[in-house]
Amino acid sequence: MSEAKPDTPNYPEQFAGIRSRIEDRLAEIAPAVTGSAPRLKQSIRYSLLDGGKRLRPLITVLTAEALGGKAADAVDAACAIEMVHTASLMIDDLPSMDNASQRRGKPANHIAHGEDIAILGGITLISDAFGLIGRDPHLPADVKVDLVDALSTAIGTEGLCAGQERDLREINDRADAEALAQLQYQKTGALFVLCVEAGARIAGLERDSLAPLRAFGTHAGLAFQILDDLLDAVGESSVTGKDTGADLGKQTYAAIMSLDEAEAKADQELTDALAALEPAGINQEPFAAFLNLVLQAYQGQVDPGHARQAGAVV
Predict the structure, then answer these.
(1) CA 50, 183, 274: angle at the middle one, nearest 5?
(2) Domain boundaries defined on the chain
(3) Which of 108, 156, 295, 296 is deepest in the core (most CB within 10 A)?
(4) Could you list the pLDDT tens digit for every one of the 314 residues in the chain?
């Protein structure tokens, strides 16, 4: 293998730097366990500061940098998205929802802190996410308004909440690929789209130039969800850090097609994500590196006997 050129970006190092900034900022944002509501604050810290892949804030900052913006300008928006994602996990894990017992290698929030506190923690995180964007000193007012509007859409009746409702009530026991694609967009893709849209707006891209990036986020989000479905089907909870087999009886890509076909579908979505950027003339390298990170995260958690070991995106 030939040596990399001196000017070739070291994406693993760049990703590690972005994640470090995100972790530091989340630690600053998380409420100190002093004063009123200590149980609520402990619950928030328990879920917000326990790691995770941080893929959503990573692609937010990465997009801003790739389009000529500054990482510092995107960090708070990226953290706000991660706060909403964390809240969605706390709520999804509840007994009335997915009834999960563990998340990220430890007891789910409602088990550690109680259902009542977990619900209040999720509400608080979503509320604080909007506040964080509204107070961001790095962003002009029009960008803040756009991000607040986009975040609201990603959460509500066209986003996370709609996807969760459909997952619970509509899609079970029927193999409807079109309905499943819409559900997966709402549950996962909407936040991925928000991430790249936020990064692009922070970098100065106008609203009418966002279509290729939105398409990238849609395909990347679907690929991630398919791989997550596969982990539920063939992964081990000791490796994935969350319950597996939780999707039994639900229609997922791992259920409506063979495992090989589902992996092939994920591969195609990763390829389509990168192709979506071509019309905009955007440098694809950082986005390809991110997609490879998503793929490698899956391959690192699944038994090689169950996976085709798909190749890199580029």
Answers:
(1) 75
(2) 11-306
(3) 108
(4) 334 444 678 999 999 999 999 999 999 999 999 999 999 999 999 999 977 889 999 999 999 999 999 999 999 999 999 999 999 999 999 999 989 998 888 999 999 999 999 999 999 999 999 999 999 999 999 999 999 999 999 999 999 999 888 888 765 545 567 778 888 888 889 999 999 999 999 999 998 899 999 999 999 999 998 998 888 777 656 565 665 655 655 677 877 778 888 899 999 999 999 999 998 888 999 999 999 999 988 877 665 555 444 445 54
How far is 185 from 57, CA to CA, in rounded Å? Answer: 18
The CATH number of the structural domain formed by 11-306 is 1.10.600.10
Pairwise CA distance, residues 52 & 38, whole Å:
23
Query: Tokens at residue 241, please?
Result: 């850090």
Cα distances (angstroms) measured from residue 195 to each of 70, 158, 262: 15, 16, 25
Distance CA 309, CA 58 (A): 24
